[in-house]
């Protein structure tokens, strides 16, 4: 059976981390599985974990009155699910639902924050990596805000 | 990489006088988009290469440029979105209706000079229509290419073009199909996100890839950036542009973009040849 450290080594987010750093991360991680349709977290809940999706698809949703649940984004294999564990007040802002069976590595946010505070070098490294992913997500979101298909002058 | 092949001479027969074509078949694709199959009332069928367009004339209403969306070895097929008086009239045309056709015009996609490369086809919204002939061409010669990916984004699940064909293509082992929508309500089990994100996650060898991109201009700009970030050379990214095309034959100048006329020198361009012009607000 593959160890969590070995699994983390293949995650793009953690690419280039030393074995020692991966071991530290693995100490806060566990393998998790969600069945199709299962709610991974809910809007307003305490955010004490994040996930690196290894297999499957997760829908990030919010409930819109008179419309029902609206999918904001889908998160797939290799991507990170959950940011609210990073900063106070550590509350979820959206619902996350497994669209398929999902296998993921789950991280205890409190455990990881503790290790980052104890080792600022690791903390800075991880924060830089998360910031890069967040910036990319924001870029996709900004493109969506443009509603590029609202008017299409294409023959 | 060679540049785009030259367009058919704009003075060819059919360039200035419309030929009558009868609507042979009509199929609804989405709530506002229809695909029409056209056959000439007389004379030879119209031979259009993937990426070329015709000026389609609804008699008594007006004329618009529409890309060919069918197999270049088959009948003339156009997919039209009803967004104005002329396109609405064309979409209302039932089998038997006669429409005028001028063309074909413009430079085609560079199919045939990309043998051996991975092919990444990126379409946004109705931009899938001008790229469908490329896919037909590539799939008919599948052994001549490396990996082939079709990445398609549109506004909502209800706006997906050629849904049954996409399903079929998705079932092939030699073609990667990625579909995403900008927004969806519960019940949609596919991706939600923008099409440039599909580029970031798709599997292809950037150094040996040719990318063909068509859709709204902003979508093409962001997609081209994603392709460049992945390492696809700028001279192997092709885009199809659209401006106010009127004559279709390079005479009137309505579709000028910088030093080029899109109807004559485009609509398919190498991205590095037009990127600077396409981002000037006044052009």
Outline of the structure:
Chain A is of the alpha+beta class and 155 residues long. Chain A is built from 4 helices and 8 strands; from the N terminus they run ααββββββββαα. In chain A, β4 (58-64) and β5 form a beta hairpin.
Q: What does the secondary structure layout of this molecule look like, with pairings?
A:
The complex is a heterodimer of chains A (155) and B (283).
Chain A: H1 4-9, H2 19-26, E1 29-34, E2 39-41, E3 49-55, E4 58-64, E5 68-75, E6 80-81, E7 95-98, E8 102-108, H3 109-118, H4 120-145
Antiparallel strand pairs in A: 1-8, 2-7, 3-6, 3-8, 4-5, 4-7
Chain B: E1 19-30, E2 33-40, E3 53-58, E4 62-67, E5 76-81, H1 85-91, E6 98-105, E7 118-124, H2 128-140, E8 148-154, H3 163-170, E9 176-181, E10 184-185, E11 191-192, H4 195-201, E12 209-214, H5 217-230, E13 237-240, E14 256-257, E15 260-261, H6 262-265, E16 268-270, H7 271-278
Parallel strand pairs in B: 7-8, 7-12, 8-9, 9-11, 12-13
Antiparallel strand pairs in B: 1-2, 1-6, 2-5, 3-4, 3-6, 13-16, 14-15
Helix pairs in contact in B: 4-5
How would you describe this structure to a colleague?
The complex is a heterodimer of chains A (155) and B (283). In chain A, helix 3 crosses helix 4. Helix content of chain A is 32%, strand content 28%. Chain A is globular and about 50 Å long. In chain A, strand 4 and strand 5 form a beta hairpin. The model of chain A has no long low-confidence stretch (mean pLDDT 91). Chain A has 4 helices and 8 strands. Chain A has a single domain, classed as Jelly Rolls. Chain A has 155 residues and is α+β, with helices and mostly antiparallel strands. The N terminus of chain B is likely disordered. By secondary structure, chain B is of the alpha/beta class. Chain B has 7 helices and 16 strands. Chain B folds into 2 domains: 87 residues, Translation factors (Elongation Factor Tu (Ef-tu), domain 3), CATH 2.40.30; 123 residues, Nucleotide-binding domain of ferredoxin-NADP reductase (FNR) module (Rossmann fold, 3-Layer(aba) Sandwich), CATH 3.40.50.80. Chain B is 22% helix and 31% strand. Chains A and B meet through strand 5 and helix 4 of A and strand 4, strand 10, strand 11, helix 4 and helix 5 of B. Strand 5 of chain A pairs antiparallel with strand 10 of chain B.
